[in-house]
Amino acid sequence: MRSFPELYVLRHGETVWNVEGRLQGGLDSALTARGRAQAARQGEILASLELYGFSGICSPQGRAAETARIALPEVLKLSYDPALREIGMGDWAGKARADLGDVGKGFDLYEAAPGGEGFTALARRCAAFLEGVQGPAVLVTHGITSRMIRTLATGQPIEMVREIGGGQGCVYHVAGGVQKRID
């Protein structure tokens, strides 16, 4: 298994579209009050850690950038990388899951989205990103992209993206191929 630098991985806080059950992909929706509180909680977690020598790398999408502004300590040098954007949802971006019928209820929709990115392409994008990370980093990204980065960094096959766990308001620590959730 390839060894990657130590990572702390954050998903953006809850958005209006998360509450509405809409797929965001490359589109954006503002954080809710709960989402801003989740980002603040992530900031508390990060403040309790020794982050000397870490960089901060964030998706350029608005919901992730807002989360980073709230959660990341000012001591981290922050950069933005489009490789951390959310999985592309193609024609289904902005659609409500409920409008997609049974396919909208699980992870299969990320593979089925017409014009979408799919897991294989996302895995290639995330693997290339991880290969370029030069040292320990705090990453601020999105639900599915976070899962894929953690899947790859723990040496699991991409199908495990469905099983690796997720959530907002927490921080995932990945080091030596092992993931730990910090609440």
From TrEMBL:
GO MF terms held by the record: phosphatase activity
SMART domains for this protein: PGAM
Protein name per its UniProtKB record: Histidine phosphatase family protein
Residue intervals passing through the bilayer: none
Chain positions recorded as substrate binding sites: R11, H12, G13, E14, T15, V16, W17, N18, R63
GO cellular component, one term: cytoplasm
PANTHER family: ADENOSYLCOBALAMIN_ALPHA-RIBAZOLE PHOSPHATASE (PTHR48100:SF59), BROAD-SPECIFICITY PHOSPHATASE YOR283W-RELATED (PTHR48100)
